[in-house]
Amino acid sequence: MKILRYLIIGIIFGITLAKAEVISWYRIYEMFRFQSFHMYGIIGSAIALGIVFVQLIRRFKLNSVDGNPIQIYPKQRSVSRYLYGGIIFGLGWAMTGACPGPMFILLGNGVSVILVVIAAALLGTYTYGLLRNKLPH
Amino acid sequence: MKEAIDFISQPWPWYVAGPVIALVMFSLLLLGNNFGLSANLRSMCAILGAGKHCEFFDFNWRAQAWNLVFAAGLIIGGYIAHAFLTPSGGVNISSQTIADLQQLGIEDPGKSLVPENLFSWQSLATVRGFIMLVAGGFLIGFGTRYAGGCTSGHAISGLSDLQLPSLIAVIGFFIGGLLVTYLVLPFLLTI
Predict the structure, then answer these.
(1) 3-state SS string for B58-78
(2) Closest residue of B to A75, CA-based?
(3) Is the pLDDT reported for residue A1 higher than 80?
(4) Mutation choice for B interface testing from A29, A36, A58, A130 by most B CBs within 10 A
(5) Beta-bridge partner residues of A63
(6) Phi, psi of B48 (to 5 degrees)
(7) Which residue in A12, A38, A127, B175 has the most C-beta neighbors within 10 A?
């Protein structure tokens, strides 16, 4: 039954990104052309409130529902992997107008060809796994 | 009830969507998890058996099963929005964006969620459609795992925690996105 909570949060997130048009290829194109504040407003306000939440967790040493302290792990130190990996992801993001969350929401919206994008993304992840030891990290 | 549904059926402004996204991240933290969606792609590779010949996929994906359930929720949420909450179906992009896309040969920009002649099974058989959907998807999967996160993991979770690696990743997202938008799409959309 615990697992149902994640389903409900996912449904809320899916409805939100669909109704705010974040899953639209057009909105991503518009964002990269700097022709609207919409996407910047969404990401910016999410981060601003997110900073407040993370500070509250730290300040009050909040526990999660299972009673353990909430841990937010620091990401490993590196420039190359975030820069190269980030650029590669950005290329795909602007082409498909979707990132890993919106891909699934678009599927629910009936854009069935997005299954191909998801399959290609799985292939990309698999290829990364194979080449991982040869890439600068 | 009908009024409530009519109310949420309107397009949501940024100042509603942004805070809801932050609340989603906060609820996942309260449940003892970190918000990020690209990890799902790694789990799915593991489920499909990639762990047998690649140690990167040889991990206990069941510990991250919650994230797959979350993704299933996204599909259902998308369906609910599409089937019950969308009176018009159009996207309110700026008139400048519409004009620019018309110049690139896109018909009726913003009329539906995605450009219909690009996001179709027929389009997949064209060079343009194949590059946008297959190469685009591949780059998403490769890049997110290489960078250790996507928009949810880095832009929202990482920046909310003021982590420098996430800032570098987000700068990378924009370098890649701008390259495609200004250099690749004008070429790709007109072939």
Answers:
(1) CCCHHHHHHHHHHHHHHHHHH
(2) B165
(3) no
(4) A29
(5) A69
(6) -75, 0
(7) A38
Asked if residue B87 has pLDDT above 80, the reply is no
- Identify the helix (H) or strand (E) that includes residue A127: helix A114-131
B109 band by pLDDT with thresholds 50, 70 and 90: very high
A24 token code pair: 């639209």
A96: tokens are 């498909």
Is the predicted pLDDT of residue B89 greater than 90, yes or no?
A: no
- Identify whether the C-beta of residue A90 lies closer than 8 Å to the C-beta of residue B176: yes
Interchain pair A30, B134: CB under 8 A: no
Q: Is the pLDDT reported for residue A58 higher than 80? A: yes
- The chain B residue lying nearest A126, using CA atoms, is B45
What is the rounded distance in angstroms from the CA atom of residue B112 to the CA atom of residue B90?
A: 5
Average pLDDT (A10-32) is 98
- Tokens standing for B111? 């009329």
Give the phi and the psi of residue A68 in degrees, each rounded to 5: -90, 150
User: The complex's ipTM?
Assistant: 0.96
Across the range B35-54, mean pLDDT stands at 95
CA separation, residue B142 to residues A71, A89, A102, A126, B183 (Å): 27, 7, 17, 8, 21
